[in-house]
From TrEMBL:
Protein name: Thiaminase-2/PQQC domain-containing protein
BP term (GO), one: thiamine metabolic process
Organism (species): Anisodus acutangulus
InterPro entries with a match to the protein in the record: HAD-like_sf, HAD_sf, Haem_Oase-like_multi-hlx, Thiaminase-2/PQQC, Thiamine_Salvage_TenA
Positions of the Thiaminase-2/PQQC domain: 34-238
Length: 564
């Protein structure tokens, strides 16, 4: 019996699971491709599916060769049997494809030329089976059984991402079959979502784990690289499917450079950042404040609170703000719950929150905690701020896309617009339009006074409308607003597309009370695709619909607007 036979399962390296978790982000990219969205909605044209099936046949033939090569490379008897079974399963699936093809014009489907994206993956897999892998010896030198077993693991590492991805997609799309008795692609989705297909994937992953148990850290890194490359190539394969129909994703797909304008608005605190800008400004004030009594300060300095006193004052202000904010939200929700979306009542309720925000700002100004902050310290703090993952990349991609007419606006409560501008300029985003409050400076030191521009939800909504009113009338606007708190609700709802990133509890509570619906973005897109395919209405996206779309990352926003 070969060496791998008696290795306890708990001692095996679970490289398959590790790779999937590490590169799962690519699976979300696949979910938002036009092909998958149209498939999920049931609106995918049959010609596109025929092309997909034809290309998949090339994949399966390459898989059969891959399993055959892996079987020859391993000296473990059980592994040989297992890999042989995998190859037989591939051959069965090829026969199933032939059965499906017979229902169509078989000759027409079989004669479809191989897609360049298909060739990229099949060439990659065949190169892997022959040992042409960056970081390892040439295949001819893999003479010993031990070295050949490594190659078997590498081959599986290049194949498993594809089937694991399809198992993931099947489960994600299964929800769209609920209540649907006539979904045209039910069999396909059911197949990939089935327990049988999941078991097939797990068997492959189990063999990868067992064949990898003796590999070094460097050799496991090679498997990770192969896994990642396979995921990228599979994503390219899905993107390459010819789609001769209108798709709601990405938004940029239907953007006409001469006729359309994309106007993107977003909040700053907690939407782009992980922390509140007010907390950052307070920390700058505390750190830079004098530690000793004011008699030790120079006569030409701005008289400031001691650091300890400032910290205590700030903590009191923060505590009071939090308590009164929650009280304000609770008071807003004492009214009768709306049976359907009621923008007017919501607007009226948010006037209470606006009054509260203005009072809170006045308390901060009168406290003097913002007095004496150096403009250069603020800019340095901004430059060191870390944006949420994917935010900078998305904004950079928008700006650099020459096929988009796009305006980008930041609408923020932040007390100091210089902090925001510095945060974005450090990432090369100094072209953004920032609408926020501003500190008043004298000789680069803040006076504690604020130029009040955007203090509250009503101010945000007014700024939103003013910006759109100032846009020229030569193009049609499509507006997107990204936010996360109750203060963003009016703008989110006025926008054609309101996207809520990790919505706060207060936003959900207030929204639900006034009839706002919160729908995860991907299911919302699939539903819009159905409407789009049915030709209902001139536009799939309209403001004041009462529907907001939730996401958990900027990556989803990027995929929705710009694609992969």
């Amino acid at each position: 019996m070969a060496a791998l036979k008696n290795i306890p399962i708990e001692e095996t390296v679970e490289i398959a699971r590790k790779c999937w978790l590490k590169f799962k982000k690519e699976s979300v990219f696949a979910l938002y491709t036009p092909f998958i969205v149209c498939l999920a909605s049931g609106t995918l044209k049959i010609e596109t599916l025929q092309h997909f099936i034809a290309q998949d046949c090339y994949y399966l033939k390459a898989f059969a060769k891959g399993y055959e090569a892996a079987e020859k490379c391993t000296d473990d008897d059980d592994a040989k049997v297992g890999l042989s079974e995998m190859r037989k399963n591939v051959i069965k699936e090829l026969k199933m494809h032939d059965t499906v093809i017979q229902e169509w014009d078989a000759d027409m489907v079989k004669q479809r030329p191989v897609n360049p994206a298909t060739v990229k993956y099949t060439d990659f897999l065949l190169a892997t089976t022959s040992g042409k892998i960056e970081g390892i010896k040439a295949a001819a030198t893999l003479a010993t059984p031990f070295e050949k077993t490594k190659l078997a693991a590498y081959i599986l590492g290049a194949m498993i991402p594809c089937i694991r991805l399809y198992a993931y997609l099947g489960k994600e799309l299964l929800v769209f079959l609920e209540g649907e008795t006539t979904h045209p692609y039910k069999k396909i989705i059911d197949n990939y979502a089935s327990e049988g297909f999941e078991e097939l994937v797990l068997q492959n992953e189990d063999w990868l784990d067992k064949l990898s148990v003796t590999l070094t850290g460097e050799e496991l890194d090679i498997i990770e690289k192969l896994y990642q490359q396979a995921m990228k190539l599979e994503l390219g394969f899905l993107l390459a499917q010819p789609l001769n129909q209108k798709s709601v994703v990405p938004i940029s797909r239907e953007h006409n450079l001469s006729d359309d304008r994309l106007v993107i608005f977003f909040n700053f605190d907690l939407t782009c950042m992980f922390v509140s800008s007010s907390a950052i400004l307070a920390e700058i004030a505390i750190i830079s404040a004098p530690k000793k009594s004011d008699e030790d300060q120079r006569e030409d300095q701005v008289v400031r609170m001691l650091s300890a006193d400032l910290r205590s004052t700030w903590e009191d202000l923060s505590k009071q703000y939090t308590e009164e904010y929650e009280q304000c939200i609770d008071t807003m929700l004492l009214t009768e719950k709306a049976e359907s979306f009621d923008y007017e009542r919501l607007h009226k309720a948010l006037e209470q929150l606006s009054d509260f925000e203005k009072r809170a700002n006045m308390r901060v100004i009168e406290s003097g905690v913002l007095k004496g902050l150096n403009l250069e310290d603020i800019k340095r703090a901004g430059e060191q701020m870390i944006l949420q993952d994917g935010c900078n990349n998305f904004l950079q991609s928008i700006i650099q896309n020459e096929q988009l007419n796009a305006d980008i606006h930041v609408l923020s409560y932040c007390w100091c617009g210089d902090l925001i501008r510095s945060a974005f300029s450090s990432g090369g985003l100094d072209v953004l339009n920032v609408h926020a409050n501003e500190f008043i400076f004298e000789e680069n030191l803040s006076t504690a006074e604020i130029i009040k521009k955007v203090e509250c939800p009503i101010d945000k909504a007014q700024a939103f409308r003013k910006i759109l009113n100032n846009c020229s009338n030569d193009k049609k606007n499509l507006t997107v607003h990204v936010g996360d708190t109750a203060s963003d609700l009016l703008c989110l709802l006025q926008a054609d597309i309101g996207i809520v990133l990790n919505p706060s509890s207060s936003l959900r509570r207030v929204g639900n009370h006034f009839g706002v619906s919160f729908i995860p973005l991907f299911p919302g897109i699939v539903e819009k695709q159905k409407i789009c395919a049915a030709g209902e209405g001139s536009s799939c996206w309209n403001g004041l619909s009462g529907v907001l779309y939730t996401v958990s990352s900027w990556a989803e926003i990027h995929l929705f607007i710009l694609g992969s």
